[in-house]
Design goal:
Elements (H helix, E strand, L loop, with lengths): L2 H9 L4 E4 L15 E5 L13 E4 L18 E5 L2 H7 L12 E3 L8 E5 L6 H23 L1
Antiparallel strand pairs: 1-2, 2-3, 3-4, 4-6, 5-6
């Protein structure tokens, strides 16, 4: 599965905001090339809400365990909740293994999972989980608005 397929799938969700910072944009250089998914039907980045999913294309200073600096590698991160994360994550001795669910290296305890290079084993589940995370974000936004 290609990164653009994931981005296009999320863009197709009602009320989705997909930010893809590029070189020269107002976003920090470290974020260039990555993608951030939020529920924002007005098209504006929510002030007090974290994205429900991201696609990261490089190692960050505090997160290098996935080996994303290698050419062509990326990681999809999805907030699924603690219970669902416990169901999805399989014990893996290699935090850089591709096409398997891992606990997010920094936010796993908060219910985030990740997949490096989703492919045959995980691509359908990744897209389904992003849709579910989008719907959960929509529900939270609607509750806050009431």
């Amino acid at each position: 599965m290609e990164m653009q397929e994931i981005i296009d799938s999320v863009r197709g969700l009602d009320g989705a905001l997909v930010l893809t910072p590029e070189k020269g944009s107002a976003f920090p250089e470290l974020s260039w090339g990555d993608a951030y998914f939020s529920y924002a039907p007005d098209g504006r980045m929510p002030d007090r809400t974290q994205p429900y999913g991201t696609v990261i294309t490089k190692d960050y200073p505090d997160d290098a365990s996935s080996g994303l600096d290698a050419p062509g590698r990326f990681r999809v991160n999805i907030h699924v909740g603690r219970d669902r994360a416990a169901e999805l994550v399989t014990a893996s001795g290699d935090p850089g293994a591709a096409d398997v669910f891992h606990a997010h290296p920094l936010y796993g305890a908060s219910g985030w999972v990740c997949v490096i290079l989703p492919a045959e084993r995980t691509s359908t589940a990744v897209l389904d989980l992003l849709r579910e995370a989008h719907e959960a974000a929509r529900s939270r936004a609607e509750r806050r608005a009431r």
